[in-house]
Amino acid sequence: MLRAREDAIVESVNRLLAGKGFELMTVDEVAADVGIAKASLYKHFPSKELLACAAMVRVLGQARDAARALQADPALDALAKLREIARWALQTQLQGRMPLLPAQNSSLRAELMADKAYMDALMGLSEQLGDWIEQASADGRLNPALPPEVVLYTLFARACDPVPGVLKSSGQYSDAQIIEWMLAQCFNGLAKGD
Amino acid sequence: MLRAREDAIVESVNRLLAGKGFELMTVDEVAADVGIAKASLYKHFPSKELLACAAMVRVLGQARDAARALQADPALDALAKLREIARWALQTQLQGRMPLLPAQNSSLRAELMADKAYMDALMGLSEQLGDWIEQASADGRLNPALPPEVVLYTLFARACDPVPGVLKSSGQYSDAQIIEWMLAQCFNGLAKGD
DNA sequence: GTCTATAAGAGGATAGAC
DNA sequence: GTCTATCCTCTTATAGAC
Question: How far apart are CA B105 and CA A28, in angstroms?
Fold first, then answer.
């Protein structure tokens, strides 16, 4: 009932955010997409920012679930787990299910930072990735020129990389092919490693 | 006179676009920043979209100039030239001089595509980079898993990578340090090449 | 070409009935 | 909680005097 409706709202927000980003998404659109009046929407979520926040919390939770599944897999070493989480992000983005937030909107950033659910989800995921980065580093599998922070942010940034979308829009390549290229670039670089 | 004023306008647009992106930049702000009335601004540029377009043409011209200077340098092979143009993009972004366009705004994209000056600048730069990519590939210096198109788009995407900005905002690192990390990740990858 | 003033409309948010 | 109707601000763009 209430939970189901709010899930439907966040699902719509998620898709619209993935398609056009925060500024270009309007609350009217969300209401129309869900099939309820705008005023009803505001009974569930008191502002556009908190609507976006709910979508972010949702996707971070999904990422966390994906990470937990990988963590339980003994066949993968730490570097492979990092690669698989990057694959998950790219896949989610290519399927139009990755909400895009502007890196720049300060009012939105402030509200996100103030939201406990968001910060908890972000921190939880960061810690899991941080553990894997530490482990992969100890295994000698990471580029020694890069500090852990750079590795972490680079992985997060795969969620909003514009390159997969540009390649997909050409219509020439399958999602699987695009993802392999992106992973090859991200982990092995543009240059030939000899 | 007219030329100087329009240069000042585009310079302002460029900085504001770099700071907040197309949607969050308002024409009122631009007018205030230049120090003229909004109506005067519209005498020079008939729409907000064409204002952004002028900023893009300007930065593409600067990139082209940077590329020409590199082309004339016999000390650099093709891969080194690609690396230097990526460095230029990262540097420009970190200095707040890289206008950010939303990948998603279709009305803006349509106007850009329809603008001859924009398309010429984009094509000219792409051709120069394409030549270097071909050459670097012939030299056996590029990752053989990646088609030229992926290499080209990856280089263009350095201009809007969010990672440098996040690293800079921490206040812990110099621009030069950040750029070296970004180039190491982009060209050599996150993983250790053995 | 520059200004002041204003039109025209989009979009976030709310009032109040049911 | 859902609706219809409305408010109000912000923003793009233009009218018209100088």
Answer: 18
